[in-house]
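ok so i was messing around last nite and threw this chain in just to see what happens. nothing serious, just curious
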Amino acid sequence: MTAQQHADLGQQALRAFERDLPRLWAERPGQWVAYRGDHLLGFAAHKHELYHQCFAQGLARGEFVTFCIEPLETEMGIGVDTAG
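result:
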């Protein structure tokens, strides 16, 4: 798999996670989820458990992406100092 293919899978995974996040947050808050592209691979309570699950499916590092199921940070302050 080329570096570009890995990057494409990562972008697809991120979009799928963002799409699924409201449902995942309602059903499995605080757990970990893995995607290969837009395909959801599985869940686990701990990240290392999820890696083992993916490796058991024959996937290599870089062929899947893991995310913690928690609200995304969407606020960002750039160049603003609010300290008094």
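not much to say yet. Helices lie at 3-27, 47-56.
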